[in-house]
Amino acid sequence: MKKIHSLLLLCLAMLSGCASWERYSLLTGNDDAESEVALQGPAKQSLKPQYYVSPALYNGEAYQATQQAAQKLQSQYQPQAAVNVNHYVQSMMHDLVANLDLVNPQMVIGMTSFVYLDGPYDQTDLLGNQLSESFMHEVHQFGLGVIDFKTTDYIRVTPQGDFVFSRDFMELKEEQPIEFVLGGTLVRHQGGTLINARLVSVASKKVAATAQGFIPQQVVDALYQSGGSEKLLLKQGE
């Protein structure tokens, strides 16, 4: 009886050793004849999906290098952050200040709407007005004096809201302490709009600084809900 029990323990040990060898074979790719004999049929097929792991995953350096390469590739194809008109105005403002003849913090600048070079100079659109607003912010950020001459002497209170700005010249002061004006022209170009900005002395009409830029069409279109700047032409003074 003891002999039979010992024989069963020996057989179990041999079977356990064969299974361990098969697992080693599957992990290392050493699929030799000895491992083929160890397990056959359904038993072998059931172990493959359970124990098979690529040897590269056990190499720490190789795994990290693969992860770093994947992250780098993913970052290259991530969409860039959306930009607007202000992004391009910042660049043009740096050019203006860089070639300004005389930087005087006491100088007073008035902002005007940008107009289309091939159109009437008393009309503009949303892009032309937004450029004026963006440059006003940038001029103030650079520490230069800027006057908003569209500010009235009173606040108009209405059911629709409370307003202090106006485009009616009859509601504005006739004289403003403006020494320089910042404005420019727009040119529609394939794929976008060319911007020609300049800072001009009111008294002498001398150009104190200039800058040029290009705004892609998709950025221009983002200003409009339905696209097409022609639908939003605004006549100054109305």
From TrEMBL:
<protein>
    <submittedName>
        <fullName>FlgO family outer membrane protein</fullName>
    </submittedName>
</protein>
<feature type="domain" description="FlgO">
    <location>
        <begin position="91"/>
        <end position="219"/>
    </location>
</feature>
<feature type="signal peptide">
    <location>
        <begin position="1"/>
        <end position="21"/>
    </location>
</feature>
<dbReference type="Pfam" id="PF17680">
    <property type="entry name" value="FlgO"/>
</dbReference>
<dbReference type="InterPro" id="IPR041215">
    <property type="entry name" value="FlgO_dom"/>
</dbReference>
<keyword id="KW-0732">Signal</keyword>
